[in-house]
Design a protein that fits this description.
This protein has 424 residues and is α+β, with helices and mostly antiparallel strands. Helix content is 39%, strand content 24%.
Length: 424
């Protein structure tokens, strides 16, 4: 992809090979100071390590208003084996085998108040053929900010999975989270707290420094992996890039306060950990690992999130985000929800027609296969048995906070924290 410049109304968009993190860092941080803020995912704290580890083949899109830079985006590039135009990936490398770290609340870094205009300018430049591309992958973006722009430009698109709710808790809603949860959730949490306190005092503490945070993260990995392997899944840490990225993130950002490690204990016994990403007014509950027991009152996840929300509210945090996924513990503790999408955008050209036709045929075959499997299963199970099995899967894991925390499936992405991992 060669450097290119295109004029999109009031904005000018330029493309060039992405410079190294040492060159780009000051540019990104300067615009970050003028942006509206939000989550850690579009900050240099996240983008810098990602670029070093996974962004070796990437393009930088810069959006200008006059001589003022008002937008930045990094497009990971994956070349086609057949000599066709490359696929582009917004703030991802496009290679889940080496990355899989799951970005959410993805988008373009834009000056405050100019987000919609910057997104529209970038899409218009791509639609106009400013650079060569075949498809553009947009992972974890807010639906409204991208779908309308794509439609207005005549760009095609397909969802990689159903739009996912991203529950959050507005910590200013009440003085204590127990005041906004349902009566049933409140009773479950209080029953679990009494159960734990019968064996010793409950405590939720923060790691004292970077070294301790890394030790706690290693223990979180052990607990997380044990639970998921017990369910026949590999867990979030199976791809080597996942642990590599987050250990670097903790090493660089724990002392500045951009990431957080909390440990839940009963007396001297460790019950589990919460790993969160911090912004000036928000906390993203990104990953957890808990000791699992088959006991109805054993709900360390619910208890840990309650104590964490109380702690962060006292520290001035206003929003506690559970990130994508409809696990019951998230919806039980939340006051509202955003919607995130994972989609692929493409230009409606004859060159893309064979790909689209092949995918259409594949979807028809998959639907037939799924329906046939469902019919076979219905023939082999009685209705009461089916209902019992579903109810048993629906509630218990979620209430304990051990259930998936990603967009769908058994944790993250489609099973993903980072596009292909698991996150309880």
């Amino acid at each position: 992809m060669s450097p290119a410049v295109t004029d999109q109304g009031a904005c000018r968009v330029s493309f060039r090979p992405c410079p190294s993190s040492s060159q780009l860092g000051s540019i990104w941080r300067e615009l970050e100071q003028r942006a509206a803020g939000g989550s850690l995912f579009l900050s240099w704290a996240w983008i810098g390590p990602w670029l070093d580890l996974f962004g070796s083949r990437a393009e930088l899109a810069e959006i200008w208003r006059g001589e003022c830079r008002v937008g930045l985006a990094i497009l990971g590039r994956r070349d086609s084996r057949c000599g066709r135009a490359p696929t582009l990936h917004l703030h991802e490398s496009g290679d889940p085998a080496t990355e899989s770290i799951m970005i959410e609340y993805n988008g373009v870094l834009a000056a405050a108040g100019q987000e919609a205009e910057v997104i529209a300018a970038l899409l218009a430049a791509l639609a106009g053929g400013a650079v060569a591309w075949r498809t553009l992958s947009l992972s974890g973006v807010t639906a409204a900010s991208w779908s309308e722009g794509c439609r207005s430009l005549g760009l095609g698109g397909r969802l990689l999975r159903h739009p996912q709710p991203a529950p959050f808790a507005d910590l200013t809603t009440a003085d204590d989270p127990l005041q906004w949860v349902s009566r049933n959730t409140r009773q479950q949490i209080q029953r679990s707290i009494r159960y734990f306190e019968a064996g010793g005092p409950l405590s939720l503490t923060r790691a004292a420094g970077t070294a301790e945070a890394l030790l706690w993260f290693a223990d979180l990995e052990r607990l997380h992996t044990a639970v998921w392997q017990g369910r026949g899944q590999a867990g979030a840490f199976a791809p080597p890039g996942f642990g590599l990225f987050h250990r670097r993130l903790i090493a660089e950002q724990f002392e500045p306060g951009r990431v957080d490690l909390l440990r839940l204990c009963r007396g001297e016994t460790v019950l589990g950990y919460l790993y969160g990403l911090r912004s000036p007014t928000g906390l993203d509950a990104y990953l957890s690992g808990f000791v699992y027991q088959a006991e109805a009152r054993w709900r360390p996840g619910l208890v840990a999130h309650l104590l964490a929300m109380r702690r962060y509210r006292a520290e001035g945090v206003t929003t506690y985000r559970f990130l994508a996924g409809a696990a019951r513990y998230k919806t039980s503790l939340s006051t509202g929800s955003d919607q995130l999408c994972w989609l692929v955008v493409y230009r409606r050209t004859l060159l893309n027609f064979p790909d689209r036709l092949a995918r259409c045929v594949l979807r028809l075959v998959q639907r037939f296969y799924v329906r046939q499997r469902g019919k076979d299963r219905e023939d082999s199970l009685s209705a009461p048995h089916r209902l019992q099995g579903w109810s048993g899967r629906s509630y218990r894991g979620d209430d304990r906070g051990d259930a998936p925390s990603g967009p769908s499936g058994p944790g993250g992405g489609s099973t993903a924290v980072g596009g292909g991992a698991l996150r309880p």
